[in-house]
């Protein structure tokens, strides 16, 4: 069976796990596959709760105990060296647990990240390697220990503690991520870790930056939670004072009703005194009642004044809180308005740039149209000039033809006489015409325009 274990933020798959496989066997296999040395602890995590597993416990039996919640269980391999943990503690490590009991816990992924700056991207066991791009490593060949089922190991699930929520730390940069098999040969026989001087300074700086960012995120988270608590407290106070104000208003109304009833009774008593002047005893009783009622009225009025002062104080507090809320809202609205105005300005600038480009393009197209029309006109003028030249050439050719015909219409005698004396004796070839007349082209059937010699 396969068992998934998270090692330094990377999920490893351990093959060949049975019911007799202990946590110690799993830790040995993972340490041998990753080439790590030191003290390690296998941790069981369910949601936000973690539990340290004993070396003699059986992971499969633990999963079987969880039943339908076994898919939510995560096993995490964590280095438990005390010296490394004390060395790489971040400054803001006091984080309150979710139950609010003030227990200080440290994020396990941050601690794993700090303890191993050069994290390998692949694990190898029994000559089985995975590619660096695959975050899941497979560990094969666990040596099964023949431990009987009635071993003295604890079979009950120990109590949980409340750690911070799970968080997977990001992988190191690509320039630092190197496989241990490429950088240096693995030596499983060495009982000590590599010295700190051999670590890559880029990885160390990356880890320091990461720790600073994590501490900043934790600080901001604590600050937000404290602000949320303050808001809840203020809301509770506001609700309390509003309820108290309503109760005081009801009390005031009751007192006013009592005052009205007392006034009505006083009027009735005075009327009775006026009607029954002859009854002195009743008048004295009525006077005493009047005095008591007046004293009660004075007391009620004093209570009313006290209630009004308390109500004014509550209203002042409410007004202050509302003013603070309004100021915060105004600040937020101002920031949003500034961002919106900046975005509008950028959009307007881009629109102006596009409009100028469109105007330039229109101007360029108009210029191109004008040049095209000018070229068309020039082409038309050139075509008319070419046609005129062609007509002139045709006229000249026709005139040359007529001149040739006129030059050849002379008498044959005129052509022969000048050449009779030039013939040599014994020559059978005779030249017809004078050599000067050869300048003119003589037309033939094949060449009506004449042949130039």
UniProtKB/TrEMBL annotation:
Region annotation Disordered: where it falls in the sequence: 83-204
PROSITE patterns cross-referenced by the UniProt entry: RA
Superkingdom of the organism of origin: Eukaryota
InterPro entries xrefs: N-RASSF, RA_dom, RASSF8/10_RA, RASSF8_RA, Ubiquitin-like_domsf
Biased composition (Pro residues): 160-174
Biased composition (Polar residues): 85-134
Gene3D superfamilies, A to Z: Phosphatidylinositol 3-kinase Catalytic Subunit, Chain A, domain 1
Pfam families linked: RASSF8-10_RA
Keyword terms: Coiled coil
Protein name from the UniProt record: Ras-associating domain-containing protein
Residue ranges annotated for the Ras-associating domain, each copy included: 1-82
Coiled-coil intervals: 245-272, 372-406
Top-level taxonomy: Eukaryota, Metazoa, Ecdysozoa, Arthropoda, Hexapoda
An example Gene Ontology biological process: signal transduction
């Amino acid at each position: 069976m396969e068992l998934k274990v998270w090692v330094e933020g990377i999920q490893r798959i351990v093959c060949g796990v049975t019911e007799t496989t202990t946590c110690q066997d799993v830790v040995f296999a993972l340490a041998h596959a990753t080439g790590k040395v030191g003290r390690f602890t296998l941790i069981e995590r369910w949601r936000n709760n973690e539990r340290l597993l004993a070396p003699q416990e059986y992971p499969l039996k633990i999963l079987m105990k969880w039943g339908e919640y076994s898919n939510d269980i995560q096993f995490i391999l964590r280095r438990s060296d005390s010296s490394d943990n004390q060395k790489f503690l971040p400054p803001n490590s006091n984080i309150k647990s979710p139950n609010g009991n003030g227990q200080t816990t440290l994020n396990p992924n941050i601690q794993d990240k700090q303890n191993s700056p050069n994290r390998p991207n692949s694990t190898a066991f029994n000559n089985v390697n995975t590619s660096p791009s695959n975050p899941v490593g497979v560990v094969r060949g666990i040596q099964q220990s023949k431990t009987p089922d009635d071993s003295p190991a604890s079979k009950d699930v120990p109590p949980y503690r409340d750690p911070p929520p799970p968080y997977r730390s990001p992988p190191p940069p690509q320039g630092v991520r190197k496989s241990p098999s490429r950088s240096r040969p693995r030596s499983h026989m060495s009982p000590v870790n590599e010295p700190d001087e051999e670590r890559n300074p880029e990885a160390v700086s990356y880890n320091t930056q990461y720790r600073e960012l994590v501490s900043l995120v934790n600080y901001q988270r604590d600050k937000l939670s404290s602000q949320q608590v303050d808001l809840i407290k203020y809301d509770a106070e506001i609700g309390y004072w509003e309820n108290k104000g309503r109760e005081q208003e009801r009390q005031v109304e009751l007192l006013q009703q009592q005052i009205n009833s007392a006034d009505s009774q006083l009027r009735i008593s005075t009327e009775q005194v006026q009607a029954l002047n002859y009854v002195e005893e009743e008048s004295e009783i009525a006077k005493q009642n009047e005095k008591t009622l007046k004293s009660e009225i004075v007391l009620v009025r004093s209570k009313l004044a006290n209630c009004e002062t308390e109500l004014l104080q509550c209203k002042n507090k409410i007004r202050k809180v509302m003013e603070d809320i309004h100021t915060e809202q105004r600040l937020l609205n101002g920031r949003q308005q500034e961002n919106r105005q900046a975005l509008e300005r950028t959009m307007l600038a881009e629109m102006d740039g596009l409009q100028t480009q469109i105007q330039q393009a229109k101007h360029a197209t108009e210029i191109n149209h004008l040049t095209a029309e000018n070229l068309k006109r020039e082409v038309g003028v050139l075509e008319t000039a070419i046609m005129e030249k062609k007509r002139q050439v045709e006229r000249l050719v026709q005139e040359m033809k007529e001149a040739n015909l006129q030059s050849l219409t002379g008498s044959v005698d005129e052509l022969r006489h000048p050449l009779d004396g030039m013939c040599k004796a014994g020559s059978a070839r005779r030249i017809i015409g004078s050599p000067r007349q050869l300048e003119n082209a003589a037309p033939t059937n094949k060449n009506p325009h004449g042949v130039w010699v």
